[in-house]
Amino acid sequence: MGNVFKGGDQRLDLSNSGTEVFVDVLTLAVSDLAEDPWDYRFAALLTLQNQSVMGRGAVGFDLEDIDWGATPHERARAKGFVLRTAACSAGEVPGPARWRARPT
Questions:
Q1: Which of 47, 82, 94, 102 has the most CB atoms lying inside 10 A of its own CB?
Q2: Which residues contact 15 (CB under 8 A, 6 or more apart)?
Q3: Which residues, at least 6 apart from 14, have a Cβ–Cβ distance to it below 8 Å?
Q4: Could you report the per-residue pLDDT of 60-81, keeping only the tens digit for each?
């Protein structure tokens, strides 16, 4: 059984093991970057994707279901935070989490 993360027309289908790694790395990044209440709500959403809590094959979310904010400024800030979290996870910006192994 797999898990689906969606945003617009894009889907990310992951195996249970892939989801575990994806969520763990994003959680490390979001923990380092979170500063505002919205950031912590997004961190809580990621925490709910922890398969040891929710059960294998029972996680995933659609980005359209997230409350991004009431104003264009709030929505832009929230989107920026999610993009920074993903970039940190991918090793594109400084932070604690990396998808790629560091050179030895």
A1: 82
A2: 2, 3
A3: 2, 3, 4, 5, 22
A4: 667 788 888 999 999 999 999 8
